[in-house]
Amino acid sequence: MAEKIPANRGDLFEVFFAAAVAARFVKRAKTKSAKTLPTVSGSDVDIVLTEMMKSGYIKKVNDVGSAVIDTVSVSVSVPKKAQDFLSNRVNWVKVSDLRNGAIAFVNSHSRLNAQARGLSINAREDFIRVTAAGTEDQKGTKADVKIEVNSPTNPDKKFRNIDYSLKVDGGEQFHQVSGQGFDKFLNIFGEMGLDVSPIADDYQNFIDEFFDKEIFTKKYTSRDDAKVTGGGEYLKKAARLVYTYATKKLNDGLDKIDKTDTKVKFADYIIYGLSRDINTELVKFTGNGKVKTRLANREFRDILANSRFNARINASGDPKIEIYKSNVDGSKLSGNTNLIIQIRYKMEVSSNPQKTQYKFYPRNYLEAQPGMFLI
Question: What is the pLDDT of residue 2?
Fold first, then answer.
């Protein structure tokens, strides 16, 4: 089990990943004829990370066998807790598994290595910018780390830039819809082409049966005051009505041997949620310095649209729909390796910034699961 630390591991993985990617572009072969690049080591990453945490990393490096110079830079925009944690080098050993995972990726990833080798032998001045953009405005992209290449000698040339979306355990979420009201269910399920409006009356009638509807929207002076009203538990029961209906509708369209409109919309929704329809590579840190990858592209969309799935809802607690891959004949598969995504309802009691008022605030999460990287 990972050591408890004051920073988010997903944010830290972004920084290690960016440092390792930069090290891959900097550490070059000695000759143009070399077919493989030298291995990126822990010390290579540490050198980059040290400069990143001081004032930013910029490195000029010669093309192989040439006087032409490329510039590799890294910019980081992650939460302050992550920056503070990494600013103290003593802390790095506490998350060495994340660094090792990033190193394993850059040494084994064929496309990244091919790009790094190509840029190192093209005898053209290139600017290679690696950005860890966890807290930047990411409208239009789901990337956590971006690689952007441009050349002042070829300003009109379009380079194949790369977006990476990073996941760690507990950080699988790629979409959420929050707040009270049936419209939130219309949103989370409607975006995947699922119409849950036929259950709206049942949901509202259930809500209306509660002895005091003001409890749901009232502001409280503490979390405990809110919880003892029972309002949160009642909202969860109401949500279960919707989730149960959605599970049936999902199976009506997903648990079929042929491609269906539901499957196509389900596939489109997942791809958009993961990538905003920009070719993006998902990198999942699986522990022990290992990663799994999956390209969120047209090919993956086709795999999803032509596969068979089975949706299951949990029996109690916060409502949760798990969607598993099925065999072609419809026989159900179980286990994490076949679990593709889950849609999860979570009841929270949120506070204002001053911690003086509290209210019920449900969230609906869409989360990638291990099978997403194996299907």
Answer: 65
